[in-house]
Specification:
- With 126 residues, the protein is α+β, with helices and mostly antiparallel strands.
- Helices cover 17% and strands 22% of the residues.
- A 3-stranded mixed β-sheet has the order 1-6-7.
- The chain is globular.
Length: 126
């Protein structure tokens, strides 16, 4: 999701803090993308489409940090890895329920944590 055409979402808008720059990002390669992807998109690790928690065979959610066009060619995406604090203001999944499910899955292990003022935490009453 772009904040605006002139000021697109950046990696710094997603990752608030990290324990080490060695572990905060990694790369995955997609054979092709079903649609253009943008920094802040929560993608399905199998299909690389926006994460849909209601999909029958949904993969794990991953947070994309790249802006890439869907042109049928293989793409290497930079994604959030571990030992990071993120904010959810600019994150986008297929719908709000999918975004909530993705954030629950991503934060379950503690490797990815949400900022104190995140919308997700506020909706949980924290």
């Amino acid at each position: 999701m772009n904040a605006s055409p002139r000021y697109p979402v950046t990696q710094g808008d997603v990752i608030v803090n990290q324990a080490s720059s060695l572990f905060d990002r990694t790369e995955v390669t997609a054979d092709s993308l079903p649609e253009d992807v943008h920094c802040g998109d929560i993608l399905d690790s199998k299909t690389f489409a926006l994460f849909d928690s209601s999909a029958a065979d949904a993969g794990k959610p991953i947070i994309n940090l790249s802006n890439m066009s869907a042109d049928g060619k293989p793409k290497t995406l930079v994604i959030v890895d571990r030992h990071v604090v993120i904010t959810d203001f600019y994150l986008k999944a297929k719908d709000d329920a999918s975004k909530k499910a993705a954030l629950e899955a991503l934060t379950a292990s503690g490797d990815i944590r949400l900022a104190v003022n995140s919308d997700f935490r506020k909706s949980q009453g924290e």
